[in-house]
Amino acid sequence: MFQLLNGMTFAALLFVVASGFTLIFGLLRIVNLAHGALYLFGGYVGFTVGGIAGSFVVAAISAMIFVAAAGLVLDRGVLRLVRGGELRQVMLTLGVAFVLNDAGLVIWGGDTLTVPTPEALQGAVVIGSLFYPKFRLFVLAMGIAVFAGLWLLLNKTRLGALIRAGVDDREMVEACGINIKRVFLVTFMLGSALAGLGGVLGGTFLALYPGADAEILVFSLAVVIIGGRGSLVGAATGALLIGLLNTFGQVWFPQLAYFVIFGPMAALLAFRPLGLFGKEA
Amino acid sequence: MIRILSPVLIGIAALAPLVLPTYFVSVATQILIFAVLAMAVDLLAGFTGRTPLCHGAIFGTSAYVTIYAASVVGWPIGLAMLTGILAATCLAMVFGLLAVRTSGVYFLLLTLALGLIVWGVCLRWTEITGGENGLRAQLREDLGLSTRQLYVAVLVTVLCATAAMWRLVRSPFGLTMRGIKEGEGRMASLGYDVTLHLLIAFTASGFFAGVAGALYAVFNDFASPSIVQLSSSVQGLLMAIVGGVGTLFGGFVGAFVIIAMEQTVSAFTERWPTVLGLTFILMMIFAPEGVVGKARLLLKR
């Protein structure tokens, strides 16, 4: 039961991060390999702002704004120059990831940092015979809230309709007279902001250190590969699967935890190369 | 042009250790080793059109296995190196089986994820890999090679590997690889087994990455998670790209440029990753065809 909750909370964190990744991948066809670096930066900014302001909410919001702004710069400033070449874009984001990580190392050093847990969420809740940290339950709730929010955004708003249309056929959307570039930019910033939020959440109940970005990136990749490009439900399913597999894998086969995650992923890919909910591009 | 240039260059490379100070000989050895890695990446990226991001992991696996077999198990160094290369080849085959069905960005992502698994294993499986501390050995001392002698040994191996790769891309098999790059569907309808060809190309590429890894194990006497991590794969790919994807020999140029840069930059600042990242960004924006590719374009004009 304890492990199950651990798995679910980790899955919630993964979902927050990976949903941003899959949104960007699905609509813009950009695999943003700097997503992990944005997550780490979000966490670091949350750590600093949280330390100054003493408020978790302020920390989370400022991290989201900061990382969304970073996304804006990344999309407008750099990625604009290589529109069209998918692989060139991917490699470019990889270069950006290197620069960002190194900048993080310069600014915040190489030590392990954690964002302070807000007072209201410290301590544990008693569930039956089980004591469970409040903050982890909060992360779980956040994951569900983000899912609900994104689902509503995608399915019930005009912007969501544009994003979904863009995933399916972007030329057609443009032909309808929509400024798809603006939709792209908003999506990119939204996706980045989710990475920032994930960074603050992850920075509180996991930790922030150089290399955390690569770990979260590989988990997000696995989630998106399993779930399929641009699919919200896919990201949720993938996150749940990876979160649970990771937690139970670490308990049962601590040294081979990575195999436990990636074995199923590889097996799935052999049968469905586009993932569970992926569509042909 | 290659026919005139290559004997001259090989001559210069063979005579270099006689005049260069030891430090530069050791840098030159490193350049040769990484040139093989870059060419192995190029076999896939340049000739089949599949850009891999797992070659650092394959390279590192070979280095790990070589050092483990030689220093922990106590096998002779030659056998240890062969085991390392074999391990890398097998790993590449497994990766290939999983990855060759995908293409483009998906291929890149999948190989990236596969490479990161290796990194995770090297980091976590502390009993075998030594975790973050890595594995140490004194292979070079055991062989009784001086820096200069090692350079010559590496040079000979690298030349053999280069010749083999050159032969491979010039063979009918190499032409098929290019055919797959240009038009996968057409090759399939001509009756070629695309998946099988890609799998063989992937395995061959892994074999050469393994050769580079085994050489690196002897050269460096140390394997740590940093050689299997993503930046190592990225560095290999960057060398191939800087040299020029699809040019094969560009690997030497790419390895030279990147390692010379690393050595120079590291003397002034610790911010090598930033410089590496910026180089990547600038290359992608201004010269995605690489140095050799760009030179070819300019010569054609």
β-strand amount of chain B: under 5%
Number of helices of chain B: 16
Task: Give a short account of the largest sheet of chain B.
Answer: 2 strands, antiparallel
Helix content of chain B: over 70%
In angstroms, what separates the terminal alpha carbons of chain B? 17 Å
Poorly predicted segments of chain A:
none
The number of domains of chain A is 1
**Mean pLDDT figure of chain B:** 85
**Tally of strands of chain A:** 2
Enumerate the spans of chain B where pLDDT stays under 50 for 5 or more consecutive residues. Answer: none
Counting copies of identical and different chains, the oligomeric state is: heterodimer
Largest interface: A-B, 44 and 40 residues
Give the SSE string of chain B: HHHHHHEHHHHHEHHHHH
Shape of chain B: globular
Radius of gyration over C-alpha positions of chain A, nearest whole angstrom: 18 Å
Largest sheet of chain A: 2 strands, antiparallel
What's the CATH C level of chain B? Answer: Mainly Alpha
Query: What is the number of helical segments of chain A per DSSP (H or I, 4+ residues)?
Result: 11
Strand order of the largest sheet of chain B: 1-2
Q: What is the ordering of alpha helices and beta strands of chain A?
A: HHHHEEHHHHHHH
Percent of residues in helices of chain A: over 70%
